């Protein structure tokens, strides 16, 4: 159970160390190129969809190439859609013939993914959708259709158990699509216990449905709410980077605009935007995590889209040089740095991640109370001269040209853990406004006139 103050158990430390995971949305829906929800969103005919799904045979799927790309891109783990809302299974489930193993490909894609990614040294995550749009009983629920519901519930539980017993160690499990059911219908609590028995180290997300017994009051009554307040090991802000105070968290984000699986002709977010999301997660994180699960929707024939690869590798190259500011870092929000970029900390170091380079030789960093030992432009390895005046750090000798197209990073090594002062702790919009009044009074007087004097 989650408490406000928690320490991350040893066997979950890999997650905060990792910071950066690759989300993979891939299934027969990729053939349509209109998102993973095309069946429902366009109200397609199920029979036609199933025929096309069953004929799907992605000839270029090469999981080792995916894994090698993921490693080069700096991802430390991945999460693969084993079954999305359309119900098609990407493994050889004993409970259905609607799978990649029993239809055209005759391949267990989950096994291939797990083997290749594990061999490449990545941690393994599996995505699994509760909802299956084909099953009326899922929507009717246990009250209207007790028998039908029981079949669905045991189908779901059995499949999850399959996934956790066939493929060796699973590190991360991402439930999705819980609406309109809740944790009590799904018996999530019982399933969770079983999952932990099968995979003692596993991290399970919070999309387990509202639980009347475990969750507190919720304004929406929990009906249709996908997330549990208390169940699950990590929070999953989607398209958002918001801190979950109660547990580890991982923001899931698309590299395109809105949809998760491959979309024909979609726009792509630029590499600096994607990297900024990673830095934002690290900055907002800390002991409670702050990971980015960055998505790719491979093409129907099984390839990572070149637009994705190009961006991912650019970020990977950046991480090779600047990774110490991200992997295993603690959160930032220390000095007053919002004007220039983001910041993280690790041990005695403060990392300034600079969004844009203005070409000036000096930079002032306000509100650093610690004594500084050394300042390094991590991007080039160059030692930078500096001076401390009160709580202001002046960094000097900065090159006129930006040292990288992405974000240059300056490492500030302090004598102890980097500390800030009251301004840094309270930030601009928090704390006692008397502090700002005092500053205004001492700096500029009391009136609206240019000289600050009363008339
Ligand atoms: C949503 C969507 C789904 C996607 C998921 C990723 O809940 O229903 O299509 O897989 O988010 O977090």
Descriptive terms for the model:
single chain, 455 residues, alpha/beta, Immunoglobulin-like, eight-stranded parallel β-sheet, five-stranded antiparallel β-sheet, 16 strands, 29% helix, 17% strand, elongated, alpha-L-fucosidase, glycosidase, hydrolase
Strand content: 15-25%
Number of helices: 13
Spans with pLDDT under 50 lasting ≥5 residues? none
Provide the number of structural domains. Answer: 2
Biggest beta sheet attributes: 8 strands, parallel
* Mean pLDDT rating: 93
Regarding CATH, which class of the largest domain? Alpha Beta
Report how far apart the termini are.
63 Å
Percent range of helical residues: 25-40%
Which fold name corresponds to the CATH topology of the largest domain? Answer: TIM Barrel
Give the neighbour order of strands across the main sheet: 5-4-3-2-1-8-7-6
* Inertia-based shape: elongated
CATH level 4 superfamily of the largest domain: Glycosidases
* Rg result: 25 Å
The helix/strand order is: HEHHHEHEHHEHHEEEHEHEEEEEEEEHH
Function: Alpha-L-fucosidase is responsible for hydrolyzing the alpha-1,6-linked fucose joined to the reducing-end N-acetylglucosamine of the carbohydrate moieties of glycoproteins.
EC number: 3.2.1.51
Family: Belongs to the glycosyl hydrolase 29 family.
Protein name: alpha-L-fucosidase
């Amino acid at each position: 159970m989650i408490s406000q103050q928690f320490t991350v158990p040893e066997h979950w430390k890999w997650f905060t160390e990792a910071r950066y995971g690759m989300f993979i949305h891939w299934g027969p829906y990729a053939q349509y190129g209109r998102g993973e929800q095309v069946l429902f969103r366009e109200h397609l005919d199920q029979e036609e969809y199933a025929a096309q799904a069953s004929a799907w045979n992605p000839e270029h799927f090469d999981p080792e190439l995916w894994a090698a790309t993921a490693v080069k891109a700096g991802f430390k783990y991945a999460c693969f859609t084993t079954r999305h809302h359309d119900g098609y299974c990407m493994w050889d489930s004993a409970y259905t013939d609607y799978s990649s193993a029993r239809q055209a490909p005759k391949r267990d894609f989950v096994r291939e993914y797990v083997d290749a990614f594990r061999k490449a040294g990545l941690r393994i995550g599996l995505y699994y959708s509760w909802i299956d749009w084909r099953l009326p009983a899922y929507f009717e629920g246990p009250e209207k259709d007790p028998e039908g519901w029981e079949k669905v519930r045991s189908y779901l539980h059995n499949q999850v158990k399959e996934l956790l017993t066939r493929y060796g160690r699973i590190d991360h499990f991402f439930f999705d699509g819980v609406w309109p059911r809740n944790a009590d219908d799904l018996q999530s609590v019982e399933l969770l216990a079983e999952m932990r028995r099968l995979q003692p180290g596993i991290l399970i997300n919070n999309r387990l449905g509202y639980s009347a017994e475990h969750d507190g009051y919720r304004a929406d009554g929990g009906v249709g709410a996908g997330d549990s307040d208390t169940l699950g090991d990590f929070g999953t802000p989607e398209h958002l980077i918001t801190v979950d105070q109660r547990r580890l968290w991982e923001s899931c984000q698309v590299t395109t605009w809105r949809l998760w699986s491959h979309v024909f002709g979609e726009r792509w977010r630029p590499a600096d935007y994607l990297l900024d999301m990673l830095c934002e997660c690290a900055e907002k994180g800390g002991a409670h995590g702050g990971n980015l699960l960055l998505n790719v929707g491979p093409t129907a024939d099984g390839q990572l889209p070149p637009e994705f690869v190009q961006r991912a590798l650019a970020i990977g190259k950046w991480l090779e040089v600047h990774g110490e500011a991200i992997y295993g870092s603690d959160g930032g929000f220390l000095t007053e740095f919002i004007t220039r970029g983001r910041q993280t900390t690790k041990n005695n170091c403060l990392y300034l991640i600079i969004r844009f380079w203005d070409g000036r030789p000096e930079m002032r960093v306000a509100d650093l109370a610690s004594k500084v030992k050394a300042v390094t432009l991590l991007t080039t390895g160059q030692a930078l001269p500096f001076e401390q005046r009160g709580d202001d750090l002046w960094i000097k000798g900065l090159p006129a040209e930006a040292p990288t197209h992405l974000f240059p990073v300056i490492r500030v090594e302090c004598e102890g853990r980097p500390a800030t002062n009251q301004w840094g702790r309270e930030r601009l919009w928090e704390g006692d406004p008397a502090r700002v009044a005092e500053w205004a009074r001492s700096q500029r007087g009391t009136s609206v006139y240019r000289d600050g004097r009363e008339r």
